[in-house]
């Protein structure tokens, strides 16, 4: 039901590219709806309640995008002029167009969770780093840290799963200092499926959590923010102020509920395929990626002295689309619309392109 750029194209640019399946479209077509600005959409309420329960929180609120859910989630924890700490490659600080500063008045400082250089296993949290960086109640001269944001899985870090013991250490250290934790869980589903750690365990280590249904779960639109019922009441005001008050959005929530029922466990298939792709790429260009560190559906490749744009262009000529994320960084993402045959084709094309580049 999707409209690929060319028939036979394998599109690994992102897991946001999935089109709703016929069964998902049927669920959307038959959804009960109401006006959600009046809080009268039963399907939306079902999704919000179900997501909150899964993550072990009191209440949830539906958002059109993960960026808006993150912006509101962080703003609930951080007042204008206070700061948010996050990894230097985090989505909240890098891919939300400065919204936390521009709209929320929030300042930020970053730490670096290590390199993704093809020889080390990607970006995973070392809780000691943000704990050493934070400055709660910094007084009248310095900016006070109000919250730390963690991304699980880490998108630009190569889909890495954050180690549970580091999340626990972060929770303990921040709680002691009165600093809050926001979890950007756009792909928390992938972390859960890869590790078997219950979603509620991850949820219990954070004050606010955002999750996306529009990535690997394959819904066309939608994120949910979960936290306490009091904070969700404030979040409803902020969401409307940011222009995100929706009307019969139950049509969208029905797609998300369908994804919860049918598309969570299958993420394991995406993980196996991503690992296979990483193995092919590492064999063709040694040091481009550590296959054993590819735990979920994202493969980040270091292309060494070969321009990432050249790799992406050469692969595209053979019908395999990947993203050039930086001058020497390529990203390939497996998802619902990439089956075994498609990933075989991607392995063949990408290893040919990378091996050719090494030989040249
Ligand atoms: C996709 C994504 C989001 C949300 O992005 P939207 O495009 O605004 O839905 C947030 N965090 C991470 C890590 C993501 O990958």
From TrEMBL:
Keywords: Pyridoxal phosphate
Pfam family, one: Beta_elim_lyase
Signal sequence interval, chain numbering: none
Cofactor: pyridoxal 5'-phosphate
UniProt cross-references to InterPro entries, sorted A to Z: ArAA_b-elim_lyase/Thr_aldolase (IPR001597), Low_specificity_L-TA-like (IPR023603), PyrdxlP-dep_Trfase (IPR015424), PyrdxlP-dep_Trfase_major (IPR015421), PyrdxlP-dep_Trfase_small (IPR015422)
Aromatic amino acid beta-eliminating lyase/threonine aldolase domain segment(s): 11-302
Family according to the record: Belongs to the threonine aldolase family.
NCBIfam families linked: GntG_guanitoxin
Listed name of the protein: Threonine aldolase family protein
Lineage, broadest ranks: Bacteria, Bacillati, Actinomycetota, Actinomycetes, Micrococcales
